[in-house]
């Protein structure tokens, strides 16, 4: 895996562009939404940000800005989602996000809307409930009520009152539509969903958005297609806030398909969405799909813009991170350098510093330590100048330098940089998202863990958990931290605490729909080992069997992680008295390892010894497989 990739890595990656800007788009439609995305896991051993797998990523997504040609009818459509992995805290504190959402709407009320002379709508919750049924039957009041809800939010009023007003507006739009597809109704549903999300009620927002997807009819024209696109993307952002990355990516993919159908496959705005969806796949550890989508974005922007455009620079920056994660360090370096050159030419000094950090990570992976230090220190100087010496971005560079010196066995220097980073994370400057601080603690904990200072690592992981405080949109992140704590407790010999930590992590991963991921399989395997130590063999066998199914699907039957689970399951079967099942598994393991490693490899010798003992106890002989000389001498391995 690459070097540490923290929240600064993708912080300004996606540009705020009009993905579906149509000059002739008129109807009242979708509002703007401003959300937070987060990274799935934050743990070093299990594919986390700590050791450079995935970190904070900021996603910007805009869809459907229309011209004001027919805006006297109502409110402008512009659906946007912004995500910060992987980590701005999504829930309740995001009142300003709704302000951004509603500020983008047309602030004028149409001339055809008749405002009651002494209407107290929006002043108090009780008065908003006092409309007479005859008044609610007036279809002209729908846009007016929605505007009142918007104004209430923008003025810092009660979001619950704004929600009630929006629901009243929805009922009016439903009556006015009379069963026909209504973009006014779609817009209203988007506003309601956004208010639910601002209140932290993400599950309530999901059915609202699902309904908004069903209303537009693509055959009715571009306006309907744009509304459907925006609905898919907003629903994807909502799923992402709940940590349901699989559902989120599914929605993004459907939205991209609609957009490609409307605008064509070479439109620059399609390129923006390709990169957006690529970032989501990158966060979900789907690197091949992320690379494919990012290459599509590169091809589109390369054909439509100049080589030094910010759009192409953003594409190359993401491609560099993907290549680095896939171990293609030379390609990563090439893309990152090209992104840096383009950003320099556009005066993006702070963004260049973030790219320099990624370049330093690549140099570190290539063991080009002096060049890595130069890249990190260059970024450090820029961050200190533009963000202040106590900003988490500065702390992230300290962590990188600590990791570098730790790899080069300079423990004293590494600890010094860890301490400098902790001074920043323990006394953060105001306005910094708490998730960045938690991520910093996790990254430093990973370095202390590699130094075998396990108690200090646990202390920092506990601090990270306290910051996240079981937030709804942070479940994958919390699961990663708990899994890492489980590993440390296991090494320390505290099997009970280890079991509890793994159990909590597994339950969160199941709840967020990550039970099909390789990470989930690895955590199950670790929890199974803990159960073996606690003599809970039946539970251990079930965990190993589930891990086996997951890893066979994700990695295949010949991958080292899968073979490791086979070995653990065979040992458990042996302890349970299921000798024949254990022998069958061990014979398979020995055959595969002989083919991949050769007969003289020490792992093969150890597995053959275990198999021989099992066969001897069962009074059986080994079923030998005929092997070619080429296989016998093969020492090529991916272990």
Task: Give the low-confidence spans.
Answer: 1-128, 626-639
Taking all residues together, what is the mean pLDDT? 76
Radius of gyration, in Å, reads 27 Å
Please state the overall shape, judged from the principal axes of the Cα atoms: globular
Fraction in helix: 55-70%
Helix count from the secondary structure assignment: 27
End-to-end CA span:
14 Å
Largest sheet geometry? 2 strands, antiparallel
Sheet with most strands: strand arrangement: 1-2
Counting DSSP E segments of at least 2 residues, the number of strands comes to 2
Order of helices and strands: EEHHHHHHHHHHHHHHHHHHHHHHHHHHH
What fraction of residues sit in β-strands?
under 5%
Instruction: Label the structural class.
Output: mainly alpha
Gist of the model:
The chain has 27 helices and two strands. With 639 residues, it is an all-alpha fold.
Can you walk me through this structure?
The chain has 639 residues and is mainly α. The model is unreliable at 1-128 and 626-639 (pLDDT under 50). It has helices at residues 95-103, 125-128, 133-136, 141-154, 159-177, 183-198, 202-214, 222-241, 245-263, 268-283, 287-304, 310-325, 329-345, 349-365, 369-387, 392-407, 411-426, 434-450, 454-468, 475-492, 495-511, 518-533, 537-554, 560-575, 579-597, 602-618, 629-632; strands spanning 58-63, 79-84. Helix 7 runs antiparallel to helix 8 (222-241). Helix content is 64%, strand content 2%. It is globular. It has a two-stranded antiparallel ribbon.
């Amino acid at each position: 895996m690459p070097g540490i990739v923290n929240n600064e890595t993708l912080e300004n990656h996606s540009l705020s562009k009009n993905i579906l800007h149509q000059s002739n788009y008129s109807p009242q439609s979708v509002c703007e939404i401003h959300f937070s995305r987060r990274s799935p896991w934050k743990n070093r051993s299990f594919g986390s940000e700590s050791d450079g797998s995935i970190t904070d990523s900021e996603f910007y997504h805009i869809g459907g800005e229309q011209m004001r040609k027919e805006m006297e009818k109502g409110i402008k459509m512009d659906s946007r989602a912004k995500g910060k992995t992987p980590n701005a805290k999504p829930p309740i504190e995001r009142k300003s996000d709704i302000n951004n959402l509603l500020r983008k709407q047309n602030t004028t009320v149409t001339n055809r809307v008749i405002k009651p002379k002494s209407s107290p709508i929006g002043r108090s919750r009780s008065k908003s409930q006092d409309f007479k049924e005859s008044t609610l039957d007036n279809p002209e009041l729908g846009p007016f009520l929605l505007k009142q809800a918007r104004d209430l939010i923008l003025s810092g009023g009660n979001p619950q009152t704004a929600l009630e007003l929006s629901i009243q507006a929805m009922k009016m739009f439903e009556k006015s539509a009379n069963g026909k597809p209504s973009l006014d109704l779609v817009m209203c549903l988007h506003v309601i969903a956004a208010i639910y999300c601002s209140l932290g009620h993400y599950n309530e927002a999901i059915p609202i958005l699902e309904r908004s997807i069903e209303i537009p009819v693509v055959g009715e024209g571009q306006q309907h297609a744009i509304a459907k696109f925006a609905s898919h993307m907003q629903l994807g952002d909502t799923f992402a806030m709940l940590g349901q990355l699989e559902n989120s990516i599914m929605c993004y993919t459907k939205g991209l398909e609609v957009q490609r159908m409307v605008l064509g496959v070479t439109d620059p705005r399609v390129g923006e969405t390709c990169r957006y969806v690529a970032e989501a796949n990158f966060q979900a550890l789907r690197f091949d799909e992320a690379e494919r989508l990012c290459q599509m974005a590169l091809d589109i922007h390369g054909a439509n813009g100049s080589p030094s455009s910010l759009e192409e620079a953003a594409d190359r920056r993401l491609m560099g991170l993907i290549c680095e994660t896939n171990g293609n360090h030379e390609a990563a370096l090439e893309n990152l350098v090209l992104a840096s050159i383009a950003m320099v030419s556009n005066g993006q000094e702070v963004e260049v510093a973030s790219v320099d950090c990624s370049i330093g990570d690549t140099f570190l992976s290539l063991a080009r330590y002096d060049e890595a230090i130069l890249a990190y220190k260059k970024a450090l100087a820029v961050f200190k100048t533009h963000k202040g010496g106590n900003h988490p971005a500065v702390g992230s560079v300290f962590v990188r330098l600590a990791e570098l010196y730790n790899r080069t066995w300079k423990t004293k220097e590494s600890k010094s940089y860890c301490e400098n980073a902790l001074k920043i994370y323990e006394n953060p400057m105001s306005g910094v998202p708490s998730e960045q601080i938690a991520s910093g603690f996790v990254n430093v904990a990973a370095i202390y863990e590699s130094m075998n200072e396990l108690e200090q690592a646990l202390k920092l992981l506990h601090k990270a958990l306290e910051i996240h405080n079981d937030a709804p949109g942070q479940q994958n992140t919390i699961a990663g931290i708990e899994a890492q704590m489980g590993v440390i407790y296991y090494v320390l010999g505290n099997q009970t605490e280890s079991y509890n930590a793994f159990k909590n992590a597994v339950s969160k991963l199941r709840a967020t729909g990550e039970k099909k991921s390789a990470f989930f399989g690895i955590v199950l395997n670790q929890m199974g080992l803990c159960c073996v130590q606690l003599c809970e063999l039946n539970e251990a066998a079930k965990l190993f069997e589930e891990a086996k199914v997951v890893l066979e699907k994700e990695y295949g039957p010949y991958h080292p992680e899968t073979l490791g689970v086979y070995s653990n399951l065979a040992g458990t079967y042996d302890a349970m008295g299921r000798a024949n099942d254990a022998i069958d598994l061990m014979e398979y393991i020995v055959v595969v390892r002989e083919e991949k490693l050769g007969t003289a490899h020490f792992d093969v010798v150890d597995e053959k010894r275990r198999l021989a003992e099992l066969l001897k106890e069962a009074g059986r002989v080994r079923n030998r497989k005929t092997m070619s000389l080429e296989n016998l001498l093969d020492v090529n391995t991916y272990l």
